[in-house]
Amino acid sequence: MGIYEKRIRSWFKKKIISDTGRWKKFCEAIKSGDAEDVQELFNEFMSDSISIRDTFAKKEMKENFYHGMLLGLLQAEGSWSVRSNVESGVGYTDIRLEIPSAKTGCIIEVKYAEKGRYDQACAEAMKQIEDAGYIQILRQDGIQTIHKYGIACYKKSCRIEYGLE
């Protein structure tokens, strides 16, 4: 039993350390607007950790799972202000992130890509960001660089559409 426990702890420790590097890369990609890396890394996180059963919910609730997963990844970066479902413009943005030291912010809108319709869901997310004026509050807070991410998720994968303000 002791050998078994030691081996599992060793494996777990290695896995956590390796994920820290990947998580840091993910955070840096979010901050710099590298949507390609954000997409690749978020897909890796989902592939490694979730089941397609995790979104076994009513259609209108499916995006909440992915939203929560992103919040968990982003909230762990302690120097950032990460807010969920906060009023902005004329609506409520899924995730609003501010990095005051870099005068950088992000608006993240998550959509469930029903039947794998990623392009349609990404376009809907980006349109919502624009139509609802979600970036206004970041501008009022003195944020100079604003990254806009429309993230469409389906089962264990995502696609991202990106814009810069």
Kindly state the number of beta strands: 5
H/E series, N to C?
HHHEEEHHEE
Share in helix: 40-55%
Strand order of the largest sheet: 1-2-3-4-5
Q: Output the structural class.
A: alpha+beta
Write down the overall geometry: globular
Largest sheet: 5 strands, mixed
Please give the count of helices.
Answer: 5
How far is it from the N-terminal to the C-terminal residue, by CA? 57 Å
Could you report the average pLDDT, rounded to the nearest whole number? 89
Are there runs of 5+ residues with pLDDT below 50, and where? none
What percentage of amino acids are in beta strands?
A: 25-35%
Radius of gyration: 17 Å
Write a structural description.
A hairpin with a 4-residue loop joins strand 2 and strand 3 (104-112). The protein has helices at residues 2-32, 35-49, 62-75, 118-131, 136-140, and strands at 81-88, 91-99, 104-112, 145-154, 157-164. With 165 residues, it is α+β, with helices and mostly antiparallel strands. The longest helix has 31 residues, at 2-32. It has a five-stranded mixed beta sheet.
Attribute tags:
single chain, 165 residues, alpha+beta, five-stranded mixed β-sheet, 5 helices, 5 strands, globular
Describe the structure concisely.
The chain has 165 residues and is of the alpha+beta class.
How is this fold's topology laid out?
Blueprint lengths: L1 H31 L2 H15 L12 H14 L5 E8 L2 E9 L4 E9 L5 H14 L4 H5 L4 E10 L2 E8 L1
Parallel strand pairs: 3-4
Antiparallel strand pairs: 1-2, 2-3, 4-5
Helix pairs in contact: 1-2
